[in-house]
Design a protein that fits this description.
135 residues, 5 helices, mainly alpha
Length: 135
């Protein structure tokens, strides 16, 4: 069921999306995270930071693997169907979750925007990898 094309698609999606995750949540408007330092467990890094990053990466593996599997299983691996699926998943899950969190948790609007864009780019990368490797 899962051939080397699938694992290659997941690996490439994971590598590229890791770079974009780093940019959107680690670089872009990073100073805005300190607008409300009391909500972050480790606002300036420190003990436990590497473990949190490792768990976030593990979740990213699951995201890439499941999206590519879902695109393949539903036959949506051509360019436009895969990109529409990415946009649909983005509207379905990260957008409501992040916006709802921002309504109840003190988050700087630019950090919310960066996370929203980061999720959209991650899903679009998964769609492109699904098409390139499985299409």
């Amino acid at each position: 069921m899962f051939g080397w094309h699938y694992f290659a698609a997941v690996a490439v999606a994971l590598m590229v999306s890791s770079i974009t995750d780093w940019y959107f949540t680690g670089v872009l408007w990073h100073e805005k995270y300190l607008a409300h330092p009391e909500i972050w467990r480790r606002p300036r890094g420190g003990k436990g930071e590497h473990l949190a990053v490792a768990w976030a990466q593990l979740l990213s593996v699951l995201t890439c693997a499941m999206f590519i599997h879902m695109a393949s299983a539903s036959g949506q691996i051509a360019w436009w169907p895969a990109l529409r699926l990415a946009f649909g998943v983005w509207i379905l899950a990260p957008v409501p979750l992040l916006v709802t969190n921002a309504l109840f948790i003190k988050l700087h609007p630019l950090n919310v925007l960066a996370s929203l864009f980061g999720w959209l780019v991650k899903l679009l990368i998964c769609a492109v990898c699904a098409q390139l490797f499985l299409g």
